[in-house]
């Protein structure tokens, strides 16, 4: 037995160990380079059902003792790198040239044995090579006295199977996909070569959906010509690789494709003769435009640019075809009117493009649904989630579409990088608020609407969830239990004589009430509403907002101002809330004010509407002023988004968002305001 020592360090050799699927590909390439017509990959289990060994067997020309002694002793160099070694004895363009592919076998098993038989004149001779992962710097070589088999070929046995290999074979389809994508061009070009994986052949042709080849414009100063072949697969979860090949299509190495193409399974093959002659150190961003970058970097950059252009064209084509098909089936979630409206604005176009980008990624799962109704529902839910809460979209896509994490992350990165997610969320929020304001204005000021709605019975409940109307700083505030109890305790300060009991809003309730207070004549009595909110502005510093909404038929008087002042004084001096670092704002709101109250709202030293600053702030506001202020705060964003809304759209929006608070339009029960 001969001991072969490799002239390289352990760290360098360990770096040649790849993933198990790559290791299988390397062994299959070695067989191809030895003119094998058939490569077989099989496994054997032990008595416990675990993976005992992995076997890669071919019918190539094989190796003898001399070849093994020469080639296994060196790494980083190979006879395949010489001018005479670029083709096999049978005329095939060889794959490897660095003499390190054999080390990939150790990613499959800690112990590897090569059993090879070749012809020596008229005779067959064999050689056995044994290696261990614990000692990558040496191999034991044995020359049997008799040939191991009756024909040339090599058998590689991997035992003490690695944990990563065990996991890979738990999902063998991922290995099959890797073999299919890597050998696609060669399986098509060389009909005398086949790979058998676990008993069935790798049939790339049957899973190719589209195959196209385009010319690649090489960077200035780079000689030769380059072509890019792109294969779209009918497979799932294909790793997007850019295979670097010579002009014969022989794979030299691979790099990541670095493209975003959700829903598209593809592999790309960049063919340029120079890949064999230059150092393969790459991954520089935008290298095709950098004249100082290595030549290989620049060519790879040009290939990626061509691939991105191909994918962009493909996406536009697929999006158009898919959307047209969904339209013809009547399941597309946007009506023609909505599409026309989107097409007329930049924000609408951005939203539509982003939705179609996401929908295309989910299209395969959508189209797998059997019924038209199910498809329509899926797309409608996709649109709703996309427009209202894009961040929730990605867990849903992962669960429903079975897209791999890499594709979900890719979608999220695209939306985040282009700010589409923020644009959509901002657009939806602003649009919803504008619609709400228009609906609110309709309820408060249009007599024809007031005659048909119990608007103020429900208005109170709606405002409890839309506190941004009173200032943007109150948009995300919550209720406070102590404040709520104190508001209820002192509500008698603002209780009008012979009027229904003042209602203190509970924003956590669903708005349901156990009774509807009525006057003696049977008409519904509309109570006033007190609404409280708490906001922490810094450590141990808080702001409290208390809003009293008077019924719209009541003009705000000096008595009302005195009432809320007494109410405020009682609240801020309550032992539960009388603490340092608290700032109070009380707002009295009605449809109109008396002349004396209006005069009090125009004090020279105070902002308009403020009638008192200390020890607590009191504001008296008309609804029209609050609505106008809220509109003004959103005007810039509204103009930027080209969002248009009408009072009718506003009412529709209110009925959608607050259906539980608004009665049917045809309800005609007498109302308090009918006689006001």
Write a structural description:
- The protein is of the alpha+beta class and 676 residues long.
- The protein is elongated and about 120 Å long.
- Helix content is 38%, strand content 20%.
- A 9-stranded mixed beta sheet has the order 1-6-5-4-7-3-2-8-9. The chain has a 6-stranded mixed beta sheet with strand order 15-16-17-18-20-19. The chain has a 5-stranded mixed beta sheet with strand order 10-11-14-12-13.
- The chain contains 19 helices and 20 strands.
- The longest helix is centred in the middle third of the chain and has 35 residues, at 295-329.
- Helix 2 (20-33) packs parallel to helix 5 (172-189) and helix 12 packs across helix 19 (647-657).
- It has helices at 10-14, 20-33, 65-71, 163-170, 172-189, 295-329, 336-343, 346-367, 372-388, 390-401, 405-417, 420-445, 447-450, 455-463, 481-489, 558-572, 595-600, 623-641, 647-657, and strands spanning 2-5, 38-45, 51-58, 109-120, 123-132, 135-142, 153-161, 194-197, 200-201, 208-216, 226-233, 241-245, 251-256, 266-271, 503-504, 529-538, 541-549, 582-590, 610-612, 617-622.
């Amino acid at each position: 037995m001969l001991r072969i020592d490799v002239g390289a360090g352990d760290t360098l050799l360990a770096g040649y160990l790849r993933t198990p699927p790559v290791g299988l590909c390397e062994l299959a390439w070695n067989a191809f380079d030895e003119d094998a017509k058939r490569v077989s990959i099989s496994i054997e289990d032990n008595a416990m059902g675990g993976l005992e060994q992995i076997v890669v067997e071919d019918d190539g020309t094989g190796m003898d003792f001399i070849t093994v002694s020469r080639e296994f002793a060196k790494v980083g160099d190979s006879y395949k790198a010489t001018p005479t070694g670029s083709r096999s004895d049978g005329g095939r363009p060889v794959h490897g040239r660095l003499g390190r592919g054999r080390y990939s076998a150790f990613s499959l098993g800690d112990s590897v044995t090569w059993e090879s038989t070749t012809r020596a004149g008229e005779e067959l001779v064999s050689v056995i090579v044994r290696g261990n992962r614990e000692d990558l710097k040496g191999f034991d070589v044995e020359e049997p006295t008799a040939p191991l088999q009756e024909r040339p070929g090599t058998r590689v046995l991997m035992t003490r199977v690695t944990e990563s290999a065990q996991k890979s074979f738990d999902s063998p389809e991922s290995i099959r996909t890797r073999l299919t994508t890597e050998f696609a061009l060669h399986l098509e070009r060389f009909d005398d070569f086949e790979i058998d994986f676990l008993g069935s052949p790798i049939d790339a042709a049957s899973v190719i959906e589209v195959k196209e080849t385009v010319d690649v414009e090489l960077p200035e100063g780079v000689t030769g010509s380059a072509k890019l072949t792109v294969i779209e697969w009918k497979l799932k979860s294909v790793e997007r690789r850019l295979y670097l090949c010579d002009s014969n299509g022989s794979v030299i190495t691979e790099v990541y494709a670095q493209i975003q193409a959700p829903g598209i399974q593809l592999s790309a093959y960049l063919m340029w003769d120079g890949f064999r002659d230059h150092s393969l150190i790459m991954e520089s961003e935008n290298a095709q435009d950098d004249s100082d970058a290595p030549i290989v970097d620049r060519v790879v950059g040009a290939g990626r640019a061509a691939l991105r252009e191909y994918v962009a064209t493909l996406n536009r084509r697929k999006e158009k075809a898919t959307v047209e098909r969904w339209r013809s089936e009547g399941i597309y979630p946007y009506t023609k009117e909505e599409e026309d409206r989107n097409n007329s604005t930049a924000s609408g176009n951005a939203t539509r493009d982003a939705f179609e980008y996401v929908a295309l990624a989910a299209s395969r799962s959508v189209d797998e649904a059997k019924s038209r109704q199910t498809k329509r529902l899926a797309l409608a839910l996709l649109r709703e989630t996309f427009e209202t809460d894009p961040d929730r979209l990605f867990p849903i896509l992962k669960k429903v579409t079975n897209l791999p994490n890499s594709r979900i992350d890719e979608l999220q990165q695209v939306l985040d990088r282009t700010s589409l997610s923020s644009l959509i969320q901002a657009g939806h929020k602003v649009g919803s608020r504008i619609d709400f304001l228009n609906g609110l204005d309709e309820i408060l000021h249009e007599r024809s609407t007031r005659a048909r709605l119990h608007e103020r019975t429900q208005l109170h409940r709606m405002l409890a969830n839309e506190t941004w109307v009173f200032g943007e700083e109150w948009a995300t505030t919550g209720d406070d239990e102590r404040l709520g109890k104190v508001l209820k305790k002192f509500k008698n300060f603002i209780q009008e004589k012979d009027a229904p009991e003042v209602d203190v809003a509970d924003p956590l309730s669903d708005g349901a009430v156990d009774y509807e207070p009525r006057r003696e004549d049977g008409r519904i009595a509309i109570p006033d509403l007190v609404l409280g909110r708490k906001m922490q502005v810094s450590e141990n510093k808080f702001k409290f907002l208390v809003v009293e909404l008077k019924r719209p038929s009541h003009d705000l008087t000096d008595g009302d101002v005195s009432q809320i002042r007494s109410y405020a004084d009682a609240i801020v001096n309550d032992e539960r809330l009388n603490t340092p670092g608290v700032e109070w704002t009380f707002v009295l709101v009605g449809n109109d004010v008396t002349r004396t109250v209006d005069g009090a709202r125009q004090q020279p030293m105070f902002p308009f509407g403020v009638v008192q600053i200390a020890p607590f702030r009191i504001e008296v506001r008309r609804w029209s002023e609050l609505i106008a202020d809220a509109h003004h705060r959103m005007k810039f964003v509204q103009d930027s988004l080209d969002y248009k809304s009408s009072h009718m759209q506003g009412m529709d929006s209110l009925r959608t968002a607050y259906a539980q608070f608004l009665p049917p339009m045809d309800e005609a029960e007498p109302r308090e305001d009918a006689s006001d």
